[in-house]
Design brief:
Layout: E1 2-8, H1 12-23, E2 27-33, H2 37-45, E3 51-52, H3 56-59, E4 65-68, H4 72-82, E5 91-94, H5 99-110, E6 117-118, E7 120-123, E8 143-146, H6 154-166, E9 170-173, H7 176-202, H8 207-212, H9 216-222, H10 229-238, H11 240-263, H12 266-286
Parallel strand pairs: 1-2, 1-4, 2-3, 4-5, 5-6, 8-9
Antiparallel strand pairs: 7-8
Helix pairs in contact: 4-5, 7-11
Amino acid sequence: MIERLAIIGVGLIGGSLARALRAAGAVNEVVGCGRALPNLERAVEIGVIDRFDQDPAAAVAGADLVFIAVPLGAIRAVFTAIKDRLRADAIVTDGGSVKGSVVADALAAFGRIPPRLVPGHPIAGTEHSGVDASFATLYRQRRVILTPLPETDPEALARVDWMWRTCGAEVSRMSVAHHDEVLAATSHLPHMLAYGLVDALARMDETDEIFRYAAGGFRDFTRIASSSPVMWRDICMANREALSAMLARFSVELTDLAQAIRLGDGNTLLEVFARAKAARDRYVEVAAPKDSPAPDAGERK
């Protein structure tokens, strides 16, 4: 049982964690914190949190577990604000999608890696935001990656692992660097493609006609371009080395496709499409959770 959970950032991710733990009977009190007062008042109204304080230092006072669900660019300020107000045995974890950035922020704010800090990343979300978008089953059969450090207290790690499993998530562990490389390829790159495609089409002279006749495939592929621009700017800046490498690699693939089309090389196109279809079908069969309640889109923080 978590006696007092402090959630810094009561939106889709933080709100859904609170809802899931409440549904499981695994938390006694939830204290929220955020900048938008109407959102916090709404969170109390619908029972996601019990009370709130807009000062992070006050919100974490007495909490045995703190979950930080703010954009990456705001995490260092949160660490700095709460560092002197945490209980000695408080566990701190987060939902940031670039773990190298979170670890660097912790080191800058605390002057060391706190033993009871457990960096984590729930691979879940929708393109919607705010506490009204949260729901208790968001993490069910979704993956959560924990990236413990050599300094991480095993008991704190086990506690955070238990918390996510209680929400119905599948928990795995990997190094900080490996996490950031994997997410650059599987999450950050697709978002860049969606943003880039929509922006390119929006700047064409025939914009209205193009979007009017957009089919379902276009809507499905570009849905994640409705995600928070500020959040994704922060992600790009935080994971720029791994992401720029993936973008460079993908640009080569696009160049090769363009050349095959220009040359009328149907055999090469068929090979690429068949190889991609086989890989996608294999991914759906072995990797995608079944009966998932929500798509992994937007990775709202």
